[in-house]
Amino acid sequence: MASIVYQPEFYHREVAFCKVYGSKNKSVVENILLKNRISYFIDMQKESVLRRLFLTGKGKDKTIFVFKINEADVEKASDLIKEFDQNQVTPI
Questions:
Q1: Domains: count for the chain
Q2: 40 near 71, Cβ under 8 Å?
Q3: Which residue range is the domain that position 40 belongs to?
Q4: Does residue 86 belong to any structural domain of this protein?
Q5: What is the reported pLDDT for 82?
């Protein structure tokens, strides 16, 4: 049986790009990235206890999404999301 040859090259170029608060804002950022042909991965984070305590009112979407993109697209994507409110989309 032949052994698998392992190349020690590093291909993983995914970086955390921004945090998005709320599913409505997630959809907007997602559409912008798709229209500009930027591939992404969304990592949904669990909320901390303090965040759950302080955001108990109605209408508060407590979900946090972290967008991860290829490091080659960071500059292009950061120009696209500059117009967002910093309270809703936080660059990392």
A1: 1
A2: no
A3: 14-91
A4: yes
A5: 85
Q: What is the pairing mode between strands 40-45 and 14-21?
A: unpaired
Long-range contacts of range 79-85, CB-CB < 8 Å, 24 or more positions apart? Answer: 80/32, 80/33, 80/36, 81/18, 81/29, 81/32, 84/25, 84/28, 84/29
42 neighbors 73 (Cβ within 8 angstroms): no
Closest CA to 22 of 37, 42, 1: 42
Signed CA dihedral, 60, 64, 69, 73: sign only: positive
Band of the pLDDT at 65, cuts 50, 70, 90?
A: very high
Q: Which two tokens stand for residue 72?
A: 């080659």
Please say whether the beta carbons of 65 and 28 come within 8 A.
Answer: no
Specify whether the backbone of 83 is left (phi greater than 0), alpha (psi in -120 to 50) or beta: alpha
Does 56 map to a domain? Answer: yes
29, 18 in Cβ contact below 8 A?
Answer: yes
